[in-house]
Write a structure and sequence with these properties.
- The chain has 6 helices and 6 strands, in the order H-E-H-H-E-H-H-E-E-E-E-H.
- The protein is globular and about 85 Å long.
- It has about 200 residues and is an alpha/beta fold.
- About 20% of the residues are buried.
- A hairpin with a 4-residue loop joins strand 5 and strand 6.
- Strands 1, 2, 3, 4, 5 and 6 form a 6-stranded mixed beta sheet that branches.
- Helices cover about 40% and strands about 30% of the residues.
- Helix 3 runs parallel beside helix 6.
Length: about 200
């Protein structure tokens, strides 16, 4: 009787053991952007939210954006890539692969955001700021160092004010970034946990 109970327990536990979090690929989200983006609270929310929609929690273990941001900052400091508070040398594929290995990631979603200088136009009763944001999005296999996806999405954003108001540069940037991230899609079916 005891043996039968042990066998039944093993049968019941086995499906849950195979679905353990260690069996899910670990994803790190990294972002390089101008200081106006990095220090913007709304941008720091929209990128992780988009990541959640790309990588469902049933299939993937996504590291917190705070964790990956801190590791990226530490790496840049350790490698003297922070030249001034306003400018730092961008990281490359090898840098992201090294950081990803430090965090035990299987994959890294790396988003590089750049923007043009805002353009200004004025009408009789309105003013508008427009900007163009470019999102270079790369999905890197940390183990092989190869990109599974490499896309460039370019979007315009604007902010308008009517009669004596001042349009917001931040709103124009956020609008353009939001449009670019909305267009982002990834084929996650090829992403599996590497066999050790």
């Amino acid at each position: 009787m005891r043996k039968i109970l042990i066998i039944l327990c093993m049968i019941l536990i086995t499906p849950y053991a195979s679905a353990a979090p260690n069996d899910k690929p670990i994803i790190g989200i990294f972002m390089e952007a101008p200081i106006t983006f990095i220090n913007n609270e709304a941008v720091r929310k929209v990128v992780p939210e988009k990541a959640k929609s790309l990588f469902n929690t049933a299939s993937f273990n996504v590291l917190s954006f705070d964790t990956t941001s801190m590791e990226l900052r530490t790496y840049k400091e350790d490698h003297r890539m922070n030249i001034t508070p306003q400018y730092s040398q961008p990281v490359n594929r090898q840098d992201i692969q090294t950081i990803g290995k430090t965090l035990n990631c299987d994959y890294a979603l790396f988003i590089i955001i750049s923007n043009e200088a805002p353009r200004f136009s004025a009408g009789l009763f309105s003013m508008t700021f427009r900007t163009t944001v470019t999102c270079d999005v790369r999905l890197l296999d940390i183990n092989t160092g190869k990109y599974l996806t490499s896309k460039q999405i370019i979007k315009d954003g604007s902010s308008t004010s009517i009669y004596m108001g001042v349009p917001s540069f931040d709103k124009a940037y956020r609008e353009a970034l939001g449009k670019a991230l909305d267009e982002l899609t990834l084929d996650t079916s090829v992403m599996t946990k590497p066999i050790e």
